[in-house]
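Re-run requested by the PI after the first attempt was lost when the workstation crashed. Everything re-entered from the original request form. Ligand of interest: 80O.
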Amino acid sequence: KRHAFWETQPVGQFKDLGDTNLPEGPIELPIPISEVKQEPYNLPNLYEWTTCDIDSEETCAEVYNLLTNNYVEDDENMFRFNYSKEFLRWALRPPGYFRNWHIGVRVKASKKLVAFISGVPARIRVRDEVVKMAEVNFLCVHKRLRSKRLAPVMIKEVTRRVHLENMWQAAYTAGVVLPTPVTTCQYWHRSLNPKKLIDVQFSRLGARMTMSRTIKLYKLPGSTATPGMRKMELRDVPAVTRLLRNYLSQFVVAPDFDEDDVEHWLLPTENVVDSFLVESPETHEITDFCSFYTLPSTILGNPNYSTLKAAYSFYNVSTRTPLLQLINDMLILAKQKDYDVFNALDVMHNETFLKELKFGPGDGQLHYYVYNYRIRHALKPSELGLVLL
Ligand SMILES: COc1cccc(CC(=N)NC(=O)c2cccnc2OC2CCNCC2)c1
């Protein structure tokens, strides 16, 4: 039965879609913490819950290996996300994080880690309401344990632990349609190393195109064009926070970042997140900002390459530099750092640069969801100001 689990959950149901009487906002109200189930949900007999201490090198390596071998693949099973250990430590330890929201499942007998799910706290604004939410991510069940209905109990367990911290909403994405998307985004790719992308069959040679013509098509200048463009530094956090808060205020759903959040999520961390800004050479004002995160993919079954080095557009703000020029400079910087491809969703104002900067549409969609919060009409992707990892 399709969505047997999700039809039992406080999420917008497909059957309610036409019902305009249902108010926007929480679907179920909070309950006293004392009434929240105090003990973990039952797992099938052979398995036990474990809290994954991501600070421990050993446990972080277990989570890394589980995801490396069993996490999300593209529709043709040619690539698999390969989040690095330093990326996972960054993604799972934002300001105010809860260790016991990093939840694993082990085989009792062997102690082997066979499943994982995580939550991190975030303040997300929906229209003019700032809601404390959990961002739930990295749900992964070992390939050999699929269709044992482990995912529903893991989702219920992370929900229970979120409730115990008096939080009642969550945000998550999926490549599959579940009840009911807040919005559905198209993803786009900009080739930086077209020869490798074609060799690994991430891209196809265009009709009537030769390889040398294709390499020339995607060639970028060796250096950026914008005067005053530089890497973000700690001293820039207050200015970048102001710039970003002002920019994100125009979207229906967006993070409510404060300076601690900006310092964590946007200060450059080698091989995890890169961020750049434009400081006016005349006034020293910070006028623009752009950033991407690093998420390589394992290339499954190619004799010449094992890893696809991919950059993912994160948060970008242009108030003085044309957005086209800002993003083109970010492509140049990513190419300088030897990325093979630059990915972006059609969220925020991204659709104004995608075609112009030679992004091509991907072959899938990313659906955004909010748990226990009804948003009356599905949003256009351009109304969404939230990028999840
Ligand atoms: C190229 O290697 C891949 C390995 C696994 C899956 C996909 C396709 C895919 N599902 N891509 C996306 O979901 C995607 C495409 C563009 C931008 N962000 C994305 O997903 C982000 C955000 C959601 N969590 C995964 C990373 C590609």
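Saved to the shared folder this time. The first strand starts at residue 47 and ends at 51.
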